[in-house]
Amino acid sequence: MPEKTVVVIGAGVAGLTTALLLSKCPGYKIIVAAKHMPGDYDIEYASPWAGANYMPVSIRGTEAAEWEKATWAPLEDLARNHPEAECEIHRREKDAGSATADWFAELLSPEPWFKDTVPDFRPLPKSSLGPGVDAGTVFTSVCINTAIYLPWLVSQCLKNGVTFKRAVFSHILEAAGPSVCPGKVDFVVNCTGLMASKLGGVNDKTVIAARGQIVVVRNEAGKMVDVSGTDDGDGEACYVMTRAAGGGTILGGCYQKGNWDSQVDPNLAIRIMKRAVELCPALTGGRGIEHLDIVRHGVGLRPVREGGVRIERERVGDLWLVHNYGAGGAGYQSSYGCAQAAIRLIQDAAGPQSRL
């Protein structure tokens, strides 16, 4: 059967994972075309800014939960030679109904669907909970160092023959044009994340930014911790997580839907650090935020899609469009499952091919 040409728009975790997994299947010529590539830092490019840990947030029984479940095994395998960390989830009853608690609804459940997926899931004893915390759970998780992981995905794609090109598109059909590939393009895979809201031919206005702000420090926490909410506002959150392989410890954060501001809010940064030190005294040995060794401040925009991730296929003339975008804050922890779902759509349309 003739080789099919596939152009993947977007070089974030969704686009790179889709390209990598498809490159393991015979019969495809793959081109990744994107405005931003690993190594870039831009407010339009969410993947480098992500916390990139595994804390499932999808509701039980949904396709999204299955995508997150399918992603655990490969992430665990990648992290096998790096220290894994215990992840503690703290629930305060007074946070019920807040934006953060709604975002983390499944994560906060005492019996979440992923309890049989991650290792060592168990309730936290009441005696170990801090003041104001009503209940908690703990499990073994991983936190990806995005500065290493994204280039690693590129390197694995290159090893499998994937081509990379810088490109800026005003319309999705331009990805099938001669500037990207002089021959016939059979599939365009749309992994544009937040930019799906502005890309011609897509213009998905259900995709909105959910602003996150973090502080990256050299201090070690010894574990990952997440709380159901804060006392500082509905759109603010508190989490601490150390990235693998010397990636620093991330202190967060916020979940500000509809906010596209790329600049660091210094007042929010102080609140983030104060909450983190209070939650995890090991960061500074019980001392104040002046003892945090700051690497940098960061702002990223989660590509949240109302109604969930879009993984769909549509036909435009003799060209197939396959969409894989809108994972919000779950981009890494659902990346393999979403990529596999998108690839099945490609394979079904392409006809008999070796399966993933």
UniProtKB/TrEMBL annotation:
<keyword id="KW-0274">FAD</keyword>
<dbReference type="GO" id="GO:0003884">
    <property type="term" value="F:D-amino-acid oxidase activity"/>
</dbReference>
<feature type="domain" description="FAD dependent oxidoreductase">
    <location>
        <begin position="6"/>
        <end position="343"/>
    </location>
</feature>
<dbReference type="InterPro" id="IPR006076">
    <property type="entry name" value="FAD-dep_OxRdtase"/>
</dbReference>
<comment type="similarity">
    <text>Belongs to the DAMOX/DASOX family.</text>
</comment>
<keyword id="KW-0285">Flavoprotein</keyword>
<dbReference type="InterPro" id="IPR023209">
    <property type="entry name" value="DAO"/>
</dbReference>
<protein>
    <recommendedName>
        <fullName>D-amino-acid oxidase</fullName>
        <ecNumber>1.4.3.3</ecNumber>
    </recommendedName>
</protein>
<feature type="binding site">
    <location>
        <position position="192"/>
    </location>
    <ligand>
        <name>FAD</name>
    </ligand>
</feature>
<feature type="binding site">
    <location>
        <position position="239"/>
    </location>
    <ligand>
        <name>D-dopa</name>
    </ligand>
</feature>
<keyword id="KW-0560">Oxidoreductase</keyword>
<dbReference type="GO" id="GO:0019478">
    <property type="term" value="P:D-amino acid catabolic process"/>
</dbReference>
<keyword id="KW-0576">Peroxisome</keyword>
<feature type="binding site">
    <location>
        <position position="302"/>
    </location>
    <ligand>
        <name>D-dopa</name>
    </ligand>
</feature>
<dbReference type="Pfam" id="PF01266">
    <property type="entry name" value="DAO"/>
</dbReference>
<dbReference type="InterPro" id="IPR006181">
    <property type="entry name" value="D-amino_acid_oxidase_CS"/>
</dbReference>
<dbReference type="GO" id="GO:0005782">
    <property type="term" value="C:peroxisomal matrix"/>
</dbReference>
<dbReference type="GO" id="GO:0071949">
    <property type="term" value="F:FAD binding"/>
</dbReference>
<feature type="binding site">
    <location>
        <position position="329"/>
    </location>
    <ligand>
        <name>D-dopa</name>
    </ligand>
</feature>
